[in-house]
Amino acid sequence: MRQAVTHTVAHRVEGAAPAGGENGGMPHASGRGIQPRRRTSPTARRQRRAACLFLAPACIMFAVYVIWPILSTLRLSLYNWDGMSEASFVGLANYVELFHSPTFYTALKNNVIWLVLFLLAPPMGLAIALYLNQAVGGIRIVKSLFFAPFVLSGVVVGLIYSWFYDPTFGLLALILGRGIPVLGDPNYATPGIIFAALWPQTAYCMILYLTGLTTLNSEQIEAARMEGAKGWTMLWHVILPQLRPVTFMAVVVTVIGALRSFDLISVMTGGGPFESSTVLAYYMYDQAIKYYRLGYSAAIAVVLFAIMLLYIVYHLRRLLRSEH
């Protein structure tokens, strides 16, 4: 009797085994069975809650002062509004008018010129940083002199270079022996303003590279010296690869500064002569403040933001690919 019962139970267990698994009907924890739930410890929950509380103010400020203005500008670009009367929806009419405006293409061309010439700031800043990154007597005073343009206001820089370019009593006229109306000539106005803007921008890039040079791996440099690397070879193959994040930051900040250039143009030429030195940022200001076309000005801001975003995303992807 006992043998019959044992045989029946064994037969039922064998028949039920495939439904639960091969090991006595119990599923593997790592197989297709139910995964055991991991319980979060109270300490981990407190740490997560504390991290969220610390991040909340920054996230709220970012949403209020960055995300919301971007969305408001996108919405405003679809309206015709003078800032006082009721706004009327016009759809993409502001963009259509913008892309048919000759001043827009003049400003876009000047922005490209700014972008190309302004990219001289990172290599010049690197060269000055390499010169200043040495233990020499009195180097702190020299660093202060090179750092001074960065702390000057853009209005002050614009006034200094306006006097420098003055064809009657300016220093440039004294150097050349004759007066050249740099800011009064459509062919020279934009390069003259860019040359003035390069002064503080180079100082900013110099500061970035000086900070990066303090974080170099000394072991790699010593190993390269033992291998006979020096001069340009050392710079290109050892130092610059370690400065790649700093170079990325310097290029991004320089590009943003070139695309949003406004203060020097406002002080030195006011977009002239004959709108020859205007850029997108100044064109946006001109339409909003002088002509009360806030919707049209918002459309210019959206186009400028799109150009910045595309350029920054492109360089960010290149940086991430090179690191991987």
UniProtKB/TrEMBL annotation:
Keywords: Cell membrane, Membrane, Transmembrane, Transmembrane helix, Transport. InterPro entries: ABC_transporter_permease (IPR051393), MetI-like (IPR000515), MetI-like_sf (IPR035906). PROSITE patterns: ABC_TM1. Residues 12-43 are annotated as: Disordered. The chain crosses the membrane at residues 50-71, 112-132, 144-164, 193-213, 234-259, 294-314. The keyword Nuclease does not apply. Its main location: membrane. It holds the Pfam family BPD_transp_1. Signal peptide: none annotated. It is a multi-pass membrane protein. Residues 107-315 form the ABC transmembrane type-1 domain. It is found in: Cell membrane. Belongs to the binding-protein-dependent transport system permease family. PANTHER family: ABC TRANSPORTER PERMEASE PROTEIN, INNER MEMBRANE ABC TRANSPORTER PERMEASE PROTEIN YCJO. This is Lactose transport system permease protein LacF.
